Amino acid sequence: MSASGTLRIGTRASALALWQAHHVEALIRGLTGAPEVNIVHIKTEGDVRTDVPLWALKGRAFFTKEIDRALLAGEVDLAVHSLKDLSTQLDPGIELAATLTREDPRDALLTRTKSGLKDLPPGARVGTSSLRRRAFLSRTRPDLKLLELRGNVPTRVDRLKNGDYDAIILAAAGLRRLGLEGDIAELLLPDDFPPAVSQGVIGVACRSDDVETLRWLRPLDDQAARLTATAERALLRRLEGGCQVPLGALGTAIGGTLHLYAAVCALDGSEWLTARGEIESSLTNATTLGQRIADNLLAQGAARLIAHERASHQQGEES
Q: Helix H segments across the chain?
């Protein structure tokens, strides 16, 4: 917390990022005796580098590292992220203080004709820059023409409506948060299109030694979101994946049991590896489950598949 007693929230300035930051602001203001809250806009590499797909960029944390630097420098007191953008290895001195209640984690298909995926005509132009979505699309509809799609959520939806694409795929959570759920033609089944790790979860980070800020953030933590995100992020960490790897996973907490399903797919859809399991719910067990599912995928050949995809990207960058 700042010396003035104000909590400064660091966030990107996109429509969705600001919705998330204002949502956290409202939750904090709803706590008894809450401090003043200010929002600080921070531009990230992912916001600046819109000329190339994210998978072609070297490094990771394209939408978070500048915000985390500001956090460590004391320029802001907390950082609000889409948790799927946040590295599984946080910088020393940063703590994931709260995982908010998860919104719908599924991927959503938006089409100009409101038709579903199976009804798109052969060769239909589908926009997405996600390697995960591209791989899963290649598996289910290899006839489609996959095109790059960058920009914030409203911009992507506008490009669809303007005819640049016949269909696009976005996270249902972002569309719902921005009031755009009416544009969804179909919610894609997680068995065929497992979402990105932690998709739909807002993560709030702060400095590990900032006791005052931690005091205001810990009441915002949602147990089910924390359990599922912990399992999914442990899986991702074991596989050493990122946005450059076609991996999807979904954890669900039902009663006292935590379930986890994950899939890794070749970019051309030619190979599809899946694993699932369950365990008694606890944070320690969530990490164990994520690691166990990752080891299952590795035993099936996931490391070879991931290495092949990475090598393909590196060759593409050098050519």
A: 15-29, 45-48, 65-72, 131-140, 153-161, 172-177, 211-217, 223-239, 283-300, 302-318
